[in-house]
Amino acid sequence: MNWLIFALMTVVTWGVYGAFLHTGQLGMKDAVNGRYKAFLFVGLAYFLTAVLAPLTILLIRGADWNYPKTGMVWSLIAGIAGALGAFCVLLAFGAKGTPPVVMSIVFAGAPVVNALYSIWQHPPAGGVGSIKPQFFLGIILAALGGCLVTYYKPNPPAAKQQQVTAAATKQSGQETKSKPQVPNPKQIPSSKS
User: Alpha-carbon distance 60 to 108, whole Å?
Assistant: First the structure.
């Protein structure tokens, strides 16, 4: 398969990740611990897809079990970074971040971090000065894109908000009606004639 197909599959799966995770968190019906319960199942999913699946493939292919230390350490660091990022997404949701905003920031910011880290780790042959200005423009546009999507995200339908406001007003009106009316002593007519 072409590498681009796999890249686009990743775009789709990671694109729905935040929304699915938020739905799972809400589905736990636990305002205090729902995000941690959801993350527990994310861990289970990671175990199924990141432990059992590659183990099966390695067994089927008859791979040797030689794991150099450098490869193991960096792979473990990558896994921790990915899991920590997923956990931080949950914490952002718990702090009232919405999936469209949180994930826009994540997916606009991550390529910028990736590009800068990659340059630091593997500098170009001619040094940083040999990098074309279009590269830096791309970084600025990626960051700007994340800001624009976050700032101008569509709001929920106004009708839903009006229904909530109407219900609150109605409930407030009922509470007012149920309170006993105490007359103002200054407004009571005097019995003296």
Answer: 38
